[in-house]
Write a structure and sequence with these properties.
The chain is mostly beta strands. It has helices at residues 15-19, 35-39, 327-333, 393-401, and strands spanning 5-6, 21-32, 44-53, 60-62, 68-69, 73-78, 83-86, 91-101, 106-109, 114-121, 128-130, 139-143, 157-164, 171-173, 178-186, 194-197, 203-204, 207-210, 212-216, 222-223, 227-230, 236-238, 244-245, 250-253, 260-262, 268-269, 273-276, 283-284, 292-293, 297-301, 305-306, 313-314, 318-322, 351-354, 387-388. It binds 2-acetamido-2-deoxy-beta-D-glucopyranose (NAG) (8 copies). InterPro entries: CWI-Assembly_Regulator, Rcpt_L-dom_sf.
């Protein structure tokens, strides 16, 4: 396909004068199917419009010359391209998209500092990137590459950051300070795990973190939405400076090695709290300052003890169940039950607490809107089992918790 663009008079003459040229792409898109076609852009300092590489371009394309592309730079479903570079490009006004470019192994945009969105997906041989470094982007997705490092991506703020299925990526550290929409980190460093260090992160809208061996957020103060940690490999997790979540939930599900969870400053969870199927977690005592939970609390696991020493309001239900004998914990926490269950009303919804429930780890969904009437068929009637729910309320009160009234 022909490269079609309208060039200002000067640009046509090349050389220094042409360097200042703004090339306005007719129809908005320049298609590049060969290096020769890429070279035609060399005299454009600014390309107004998008540059799209075709599906068959040959192995190497260098787009040096332009400093700016105002639209997108896109390569999709290209099985030829092995290297893509530009020694001059500093900004892409739209999206820099590389999708299903199966042979690309190196990207070198040594001056590129700004893009609106970086969307790199299904680049299964990509092992080397050089960027300006990139210091400005609204969105970054890096998925299915063999990158070992994301050096070169050096953002302090981003709206969306999604790093998934990069199977050789074992380490990610970033000076990221604020995150407006979401951070998703999942299925990286296969077999090895990914360690994540975000020393400067102060607030983040939402986080979904899975399959990491370490997640360090020493400065994190606020999660505006939700933070969710699933199937991670870490033994220890701490958010030492987190004071509250504004609206969303905190959840830890299926983190098999987790044995030490600490939120020493957390006072408010705007949404709910879900801690489930973290089978090595013996005690849920992470929430020493937690006063208020805007949603429900649901705890499931093999823990022997649960402590909420500062709790004064839970808007939703509290539903606790363990494989272990937590009858003492259930008794202790029943003082927070709603008045109609004999407690002091700290908990607005139904209070339910079950000990010796062999299936405690099976019911781990985040639906915390249940009535709290846990089906006690496994153990409610056994000597060891005991459930604190509406049905047993009378028994609870009789058992000596009337004082809590
Ligand atoms: C990926 O691109 C190749 C061409 O290189 C194409 O044959 C294949 O169908 C594309 N895969 C997807 C999932 O689009
Ligand atoms: C990237 O390109 C720059 C400028 O063209 C060059 O100096 C550098 O060596 C290249 N880096 C790699 C890793 O190829
Ligand atoms: C998140 O909370 C922080 C601290 O309260 C606030 O400064 C920031 O604007 C909030 N961000 C979003 C996206 O709501
Ligand atoms: C990675 O995490 C997901 C949950 O997001 C889980 O389904 C998957 O099994 C985990 N993989 C490994 C290897 O832990
Ligand atoms: C934790 O918060 C305190 C109080 O706001 C602050 O002085 C301290 O620097 C924070 N620590 C980190 C590592 O950000
Ligand atoms: C749990 O983690 C916290 C914070 O990282 C640490 O101070 C504490 O020593 C750990 N506790 C145990 C028993 O390892
Ligand atoms: C958790 O409890 C279940 C059910 O009793 C048990 O099968 C499992 O081995 C326990 N896991 C750990 C790590 O204790
Ligand atoms: C609980 O976590 C273990 C891994 O620790 C996993 O094998 C199991 O499928 C999880 N249970 C549920 C119900 O998801």
């Amino acid at each position: 396909m022909l490269v079609k663009y309208l060039v200002p008079a000067l640009a046509a003459f090349g050389s220094a004068a042409a360097q200042a040229g703004t090339c306005t792409v007719s129809g908005g898109t320049t298609t590049v199917n060969s290096q020769a076609e890429a070279t035609k852009l060399a005299s454009c300092r600014t390309v107004r419009g998008s540059v799209v590489l075709g599906k068959q371009t040959g192995a190497a394309i260098d787009i040096s010359g332009p400093q700016q592309i105002t639209g997108d730079l896109r390569v999709e479903d290209n099985g030829d391209l092995e290297t893509l570079s530009s020694s001059t490009l500093t900004s892409v006004g739209g999206a820099f998209v590389l999708k299903n470019v199966t042979k690309i192994n190196a990207i070198n945009f040594s001056k590129l500092t700004s893009v609106r969105a970086l969307q790199w997906q299904s680049l299964s041989l990509l092992s080397s990137i050089t960027l300006g470094p990139l210091s400005s982007a609204d969105e970054v997705t890096i998925s299915d590459t063999v990158l070992q490092s994301l050096e070169g991506i050096d953002l302090t703020n981003v709206k969306k950051f999604n790093i998934n299925n990069n199977r050789r990526l074992q380490q990610f550290s970033s000076k990221l300070a604020t995150l407006d929409e979401e951070l998703i980190i999942q299925a990286n460093g296969i077999g090895l795990g990914l360690t994540v260090d975000l020393p400067n992160l102060v607030w983040a809208a939402n986080m979904a973190i899975a399959n990491v061996t370490k997640f360090s957020v020493p400065s994190l103060k606020v999660v505006n939405g939700s933070a969710r940690f699933d199937s991670n490999f870490f033994e220890s997790f701490s958010a030492p400076n987190l004071t509250h979540t504004e609206k969303g939930d905190i959840s830890f599900v299926g983190n098999a090695a987790l044995n030490n969870l600490t939120f020493p400053r957390l006072t408010v969870i705007g949404g709910g709290l879900l801690v489930a199927n973290n089978t090595a977690l013996d005690e849920i005592n992470a929430f020493s300052k937690l006063e208020r939970v805007g949603g429900a609390i649901k705890l499931r696991g093999n823990f022997t003890e649960v402590e909420f020493p500062a709790l004064n309001t839970v808007e939703g239900a509290v539903d606790i169940s363990s494989t272990a004998d937590i009858r003492d914990t259930c008794e202790e926490l029943s003082k927070f039950a709603p008045a109609n269950q004999g407690g002091d009303g700290t908990i607005a919804g139904v209070f339910s607490c079950t000990a010796n429930n062999a299936n405690a780890n099976d019911d781990i969904d985040g639906d915390t809107s249940d009535s709290g009437n846990i089906d006690g068929k496994d153990d409610e009637n056994s000597a060891a089992g005991m459930a604190f729910n509406s049905a047993l309320l009378g028994l609870v009160a009789v058992a000596g918790f009337a004082a809590a009234l």
